[in-house]
Amino acid sequence: MFSGSIVALVTPMTADGQVDFDSLQQLVAFHLTEGSDGLVIMGTTGEAATLSLAEQHAVMTTVCEQVAGKIPVIAGNGAMATSDAIEKTQFFADLPIAGYLTVTPFYNKPTQKGMLAHFSAVAAVTDKPIILYNVPGRTGVDILPATVAALAKVPNIVGIKEATGSLSRLADLQALCPSDFMLLSGDDATFAEFMLAGGHGVISVTANVAPAAMSAICQAATADDVAEVRRLDGRLQALHRDLFIESNPIPTKWALWRMGLMQSDFLRLPLTQLEPIHNTIIEQALQQAGIQYQDRN
Q1: How is the chain split into domains, by residue range?
Q2: Long-range contacts formed by 119-124: CB under 8 A, 24+ apart
Q3: What share of the chain is helix, strand, coil (3-state, %, to 5)?
Q4: Residue 152 in 3-state DSSP?
Q5: Angle between helices 21-34 and 53-67 (to 10 degrees)
Q6: Digitized pLDDT (tens) for each residue of the chain, 297 residues in all
Q7: Which of 133, 153, 253, 293 is catalytic?
Q8: 153 a catalytic residue
Q9: Contact 116, 127 (CB under 8 A)
């Protein structure tokens, strides 16, 4: 259902902080051409936390209309409060999305019992598939494999984006969850090994700037071509690392702006634009990946 290279898409903004729909359409066209297998809209990388529900809906509408069913469009619906996650899920219900990406509640650090109840409540208000999203470094809470296995029994909870970067965590999930439960990496630096170990794909930040390469790695991993996976992924390791040299999506938006795919690298506060001291580092990572960029000074 959801596999391969799925892009955690940025939300382009104009220099005055409005959503840049022209650049958004340019990015979507880029991914359709370059072979991405899906788009996640309004996740962490999409700066959902700083956009109103109306803005989020407008972005998703634009993307869905342009994609026109060619690849899955997945909507981020996570929230700190269960009631807010339910509201977001229902607010996006009229859109032709393929499913939802639902992050663990952040900051308030619920127990495993609380997360079981949270995800079950969100799943109950939609018939669309839900992918769990576990990213302890962002949320301060870790949904454990036993809890994931319990949630896998909910008919429309179909997979997890696992961003701990732990291959032993993958093995635990494989042992406890049904074979058709989608196991997606959320950690670009380790995703290639994750897929070689039996994972089904990745929801990726790196795929924003290197979609064709990320797709090729996924295809090679599916074919169990270990040498090709490691050859291709070796070229991207600097990107995997350096796109997080500042908080995501700061470096990614700067890279896309330098690639000529966005008019601006603006982010809404509290995020700010890339510090100039890091410009050369991102340029070198792009060069290592074979990605061309423009001089926009």
Answers
A1: 4-224
A2: 119/151, 119/154, 119/157, 120/151, 120/154, 121/82, 121/86, 122/77, 122/82, 122/85, 122/86, 122/89, 123/154, 123/156, 123/157
A3: 45, 15, 40
A4: coil
A5: 40
A6: 799 999 999 999 999 999 999 999 999 999 999 999 999 999 999 999 999 999 999 999 999 999 999 999 999 999 999 999 999 999 999 999 999 999 999 999 999 999 999 999 999 999 999 999 999 999 999 999 999 999 999 999 999 999 999 999 999 999 999 999 999 999 999 999 999 999 999 999 999 999 999 999 999 999 999 999 999 999 999 999 999 999 999 999 999 999 999 999 999 999 999 999 999 999 999 999 999 999 876
A7: 133
A8: no
A9: no
Q: Are 133 and 186 in contact (CB under 8 A)?
A: yes
For 288, residues 6+ apart whose C-beta sits below 8 A from its C-beta are 235, 238, 239
The whole-angstrom distance between residue 166's C-alpha and the CA centroid of its chain comes to 17
Instruction: Give the residues across from 76 on adjacent strands.
Output: 101
Find out whether 207 and 243 touch, Cβ atoms under 8 Å: no
Find out whether 203 is annotated in a ligand binding site. yes
> For the chain, what's the residue count?
297
Among residues 128, 161, 253, 293, the one annotated as catalytic is 161
Backbone φ, ψ for residue 203 (5° rounding)? -105, 110
Asked if 161 is an active-site residue, the reply is yes
Distance CA 154, CA 149 (A): 10
Q: Does domain 4-224 have CATH number 3.40.50.720?
A: no
